[in-house]
Specification:
The protein is α/β, with parallel strands linked by helices. About 40% of the residues lie in helices and about 15% in strands. The protein contains twelve helices and seven strands. Strands 3-2-1-4-5-7-6 form a seven-stranded mixed beta sheet, with helices on both faces. Helix 4 (about 70-85) packs parallel to helix 5. The longest helix is centred in the N-terminal third of the chain and has 15 residues, at about 70-85. The chain is globular.
Length: about 300
């Protein structure tokens, strides 16, 4: 997809390569060397802003990186200032851009913990190194493993009791199943806010349908059986199979019903990928719970 001329003077990232070879090809480790060998490393150390600048420099001059970027990132940092989350969770950390940007914003807003959940252990190691470099290790905790298992484990051990704000930016078919998991564990309750990336590029029809549905619609669908892989079928091979290099098959649970009684208000905020391609962040607020028929279900 061609770059957009949507914002005058914006210095965009290198274009995203065709096919699925746009990440996990060594560029993430190359980024780490780029940052730590940067001529300004002494000024970068201890500064989240300057670490982010170095990551952006790599993305603009070397290779594309699938980061949230400055423009969409601002949507979420403004949300952090408003919500002032004590606990924020991100699903999909990649190289730590969002963990640095949002973790720092959480810290500045008086928050206590930012969990960055990342499946790939190499990416997790990159995040940890850059978080330590930026001086955010007191707030940002990197958790390596499949997102659903990490959520369940953190909840079971008492480390994660409630999610005030959640940023979804991982395996696109898992947005809906992981949200339902968080609902079932009472991690998402009235007052929780969700920010979901890439809801225009590549898009996420199952997730948008879920968060924009009424309680009545969700209740009806929760009574129906869902075939395994139904959410995955809504995506192209490029995104459905983007982790095929590491996994024979990505399996998502179709058994978790979540809490269909939660009331959401949801809207798209349009923006741009760091490459200049139009994209949007879906902002969803849990504004209540309609409990009355639950005992009859």
């Amino acid at each position: 997809m061609a770059q957009s001329a949507g914002i005058q003077g914006q210095n965009w990232y290198m274009p995203q390569e065709e096919g699925i070879a746009f990440f996990d090809d060594g560029r993430e480790i190359e980024l780490l060397h780029f940052v730590f060998n940067h001529p300004s490393i002494s000024q970068i150390r201890g500064s989240p802003h300057k670490v982010l600048e170095a990551i952006d420099e790599y993305g603009k001059t070397k290779k594309y990186l699938m980061n949230v970027g400055e423009l969409k990132g601002k949507i979420v940092t403004e949300l952090i200032k408003e919500v002032k989350p004590q606990t924020m969770v991100e699903l999909g950390g990649y190289v730590g851009y969002s963990a640095l940007l949002f973790g720092d914003a959480v810290k500045q807003s008086g928050g206590k913990r930012y969990f960055s959940l990342e499946r790939n252990p190499e990416f997790g190691a990159v995040i940890m190194a850059l978080v330590e470099l930026a001086g955010l290790s007191d707030v940002v905790k990197v958790v390596i493993g499949p997102s659903d298992q990490s959520i369940q484990r953190l909840h079971a051990e008492g480390s994660l009791k409630h999610i005030d704000l959640m940023f979804l930016d991982h395996y696109k078919p898992a947005y809906t199943t992981d949200l339902k998991l968080c609902e079932s564990l009472n991690l998402i309750t009235p007052g929780s806010v969700l920010a979901a990336d890439n809801c225009i590029k590549p898009g996420n029809p199952p997730y948008l349908e879920y968060v924009r549905s009424s309680v009545k619609q969700k209740r009806e669908r929760s009574k129906q059986s869902t075939a395994a892989g139904a959410d995955q079928a809504a995506f192209s091979d490029r995104y459905r199979g983007q982790y095929a290099k590491r996994l024979d098959e990505e399996k998502l649970s179709s058994d978790i019903k979540g809490n269909p009684n939660l009331v959401y208000e949801s809207k798209m905020v349009n923006s741009f990928e760091p490459t200049g391609v139009p994209d949007g962040v879906e902002i969803t607020r849990c504004v209540g719970e309609d409990k009355w028929p639950r005992s009859k279900a």
